[in-house]
Amino acid sequence: MSPWKAAQLGDHISQIDTPSLVLDLDAFERNLARMRLALQGSHVRLRAHAKSHKCPHIARRQIELGAIGICCQKVSEAAVFVQAGIQDILITNEVIGSTKLRHLAQLARRARIGVLVDHAQQIEALSAVAMAHSVSLDVYVEINVGANRCGVAPGEAAALLARQVVANSSLRFAGLQCYHGSAQHQRLPQDRAAAIASAVEAARISRQAIESCGINVERITGGGTGTFLHERDSGVFNEIQAGSYIFMDRDYSDNQLAIGDIAFEHALFVRTTVMSRNASNYAVIDAGLKASSVDSGMPKVWQRTDLSYIKAADEHGVLSTINAASVNLGDQLMLVPGHCDPTVNLYDEMICIRGDRVEAVWPIAARGAVL
Fold it and tell me: Which domains does the chain have, with CATH numbers?
């Protein structure tokens, strides 16, 4: 943690120390409103994914605007949000290990907690820990809908696990997890549509197999920022898990939009300063690998098409300045991160600006919660 604050309330944007994580509140609030409008009247609810922001302030704003609750990816992440008063959390992951399971059960005493399974052994372990702590857990069977990561095959394999969940009195079968992560970043709209059509069919087949056993499938959840309109309109999904829509990183903005798609705005930035300018063809800034994740590619320089971020080291970023307008030592720039989730996890605080002034500083309370 830094020994001093990068900004104070009321500071002008030029006073923000760098590198810093900056949230444009006006763009952020427009993104929240666009998602709310997109789901109005659809009978599909939003369970916003908090792994994108790791910030209770943002989770509360999402719930105030109609989100049923949030998703988390890790038990320790969920614990931060329970501590902050969030009462409905789905951990969109399988949970293994006695320590994690014990913490999971303890959280279920304070909030409604859901968790995923894709193996009988997980169900046995969840049942045992829930009984030992006298709590009930919501359990979702995860279906492999095309991402080829976690999840069982659609159909009978899902029904088998659902029957096992129902057979345990300490567990509540809550539905199906059908998230197609890789589809979110397919660049062409027709490719995203085809991928989700396949996912919808996998979900439908699984629901049919489970309901033929006399078990109600209350919830089919999934979908992300890149595809949520397809899940919304599927007639099969009734909950979506979009998260990045509030920020819109560079990777998501590289997707080509189809007619009718919603264009969310860039709201999250890394503010950076030119720290070296000793060559005509490049400039060095103070935002490198420890300031912006490059797992999904380099960040882009906001509103400067004449500058390209070409190389990152631990503490340095190199910008190509060939044919660029003037770039001077001490200039401050805004970067759009390539991938918002891991970039947020690099910071303790998010500096929230409205116009050119700092309006709030929000702790990223679940930063580093990877257990």
Answer: 13-22+264-363 (2.40.37.20), 42-247 (3.20.20.10)
Q: At what angle do helices 189-211 and 156-166 cross, to 10 degrees?
A: 50
Query: CB–CB of 158/209 below 8 Å?
Result: yes
CA distance readout (Å), 211 to 139, 151, 349:
16, 19, 46
SS3 at position 107? helix
Q: What are 107-123's pLDDT values in tens digits?
A: 999 999 999 999 999 99
DSSP classification of residue 305: T
- Phi/psi-derived region of residue 363, left when phi > 0, alpha when psi is between -120 and 50, beta in every other case: beta
pLDDT value for 156: 97
For the chain, list residues with pLDDT below 70: none
Please state, in angstroms and as integers, the Cα–Cα distance from residue 308 to each residue in 68, 120, 239, 333, following that order: 40, 50, 38, 12
Cβ burial, residue 325 (10 Å; 0-12/13-18/19+): exposed
Calpha distance 331→308 (Å, rounded): 15
Q: Which residues are CB-neighbours of 187 under 8 A, at least 6 positions away?
A: 254, 255, 256
SS3 for 218?
coil
pLDDT reported for residue 163:
98
CB 220 within 8 A of CB 180: no
Distance, CA of 223 to CA of 339 (rounded, Å): 18
